Amino acid sequence: KAGVTQTPRYLIKTRGQQVTLSCSPISGHRSVSWYQQTPGQGLQFLFEYFSETQRNKGNFPGRFSGRQFSNSRSEMNVSTLELGDSALYLCASSLNTGGQETQYFGPGTRLLVL
Amino acid sequence: SQQGEEDPQALSIQEGENATMNCSYKTSINNLQWYRQNSGRGLVHLILIRSNEREKHSGRLRVTLDTSKKSSSLLITASRAADTASYFCATEAYNTDKLIFGTGTRLQVFP
Hints:
The complex is a heterodimer.
Chain A: E1 5-7, E2 10-13, E3 19-24, E4 31-38, E5 42-50, E6 53-57, E7 64-68, E8 74-78, E9 87-94, E10 104-105, E11 109-113
Parallel strand pairs in A: 2-11
Antiparallel strand pairs in A: 1-3, 3-8, 4-5, 4-9, 5-6, 7-8, 9-10, 9-11
Chain B: E1 4-7, E2 10-14, E3 19-25, E4 29-37, E5 43-50, E6 55-58, E7 61-66, E8 71-76, E9 85-93, E10 99-101, E11 105-110
Parallel strand pairs in B: 2-11
Antiparallel strand pairs in B: 1-3, 3-8, 4-5, 4-9, 6-7, 7-8, 9-10, 9-11
């Protein structure tokens, strides 16, 4: 089975712009979670989608949003980018929802906001 | 704040030595997982230990869980240079579905 894929792998944007990141889960996995990783804050949970519905949400402002499609692929959008949004964005898929499941991570999208 | 705090933040050892990393968490949990991350890439799941388990082994990995102290340890025996990575514990707090990651331990194994 192919692993979790994320596109693009690298991205440079300027403040005020918006960005959309994409994640394709492992075939058959219905849950997709997104994380932000920065040197200062570590790995922070953004949100989780399961069967096209947002199941859980972390403590991020409304500028961070996401969605999941019927094929379980997920997109994450960040509007009005700020310098502090520079980070590695990781998505992870699992068979079902819930933290009891092993998470399979993609390679991440490295976003740089200038 | 994050659920898990890891100690030490960084660890340097020689090949063949054992490496021990500790994780402390704050609330009751359903399970605790350990993940490895190689230099800013995706995380790889290593092992999951449930709240009713005290010890688990997988190859050169040994994980212990002490729910009374809200702590876990990961032992890597006979370390190799390829074990160089950051190691994170992650917990699913009781009655939530969210997986919360700790701060990580950066392990450097010198050949």
